[in-house]
Predict the 3D structure of the following.
Amino acid sequence: MGDVNELLEQAIKETENLNEGEVFLVKDLFKGYVWNRIPRKDRLLLGTLFLNYVNKMEGNIKAIEKTSSNQQRYQKV
Amino acid sequence: MIGIATVEAINKLIGQKDGFLTILKENIETVISETDNNIVSEIDKKLEELQKDLLRLANSKEDYNDIADEIYRLREERHKALAEEAGKKGSKQRLEEMEKFLNEQSTLLEKYDEQLVRRLIEKVTIFDEKLTIEFKSGVEVDV
């Protein structure tokens, strides 16, 4: 969980670099090789934690409709 | 030659339209009864519960491997259910298209109609002694 919390912080920090209106997935917030190194179960947990954070904060990131493969999409507003 | 055969096949269907419409209606009802729209929403509910469990286990520093595997398995199942649903919708649409055509068509065709053939016919298979015309609704007619 410790590692995942660090990843969550990184993801949140990375959203600062997004422009208004941009749509993204949690995996887009990481370099490909970093994302690939995250164990599958932790990716899942990270996704859940990120969604919880977004819903709780009600800030400038909004959860929007999921992709056809059921991945949660977000938009910076 | 193939053009004439398709006209003949369509006319065979028009000729037996009453019996054929009954079969089509039965087939449409079968497709509708087999389409279970609840599967995906049931999976979504389960996924939501499992995500809560995932958080609870992670927070209490317990192993969440099994939950994660189950979530991935259900996602796969959801994907399959969606694909199946789309397939059934397509079948229903093709059956309804044929039903509509037969209901609207009161006379036999006199000439080849390219648009109609594209709308109704899936494929034509040529054998030595006959041609088999397969309609998009699934019906096959030999001429």
User: Anything to note?
Assistant: The mean pLDDT of chain A is 92. Chain A touches chain B at residues 1, 4, 40-41, 44-45, 48-49, 52, 68-70 (CB under 8 Å). The first helix of chain A runs from residue 2 to 14. DSSP finds three helices and three strands in chain A.
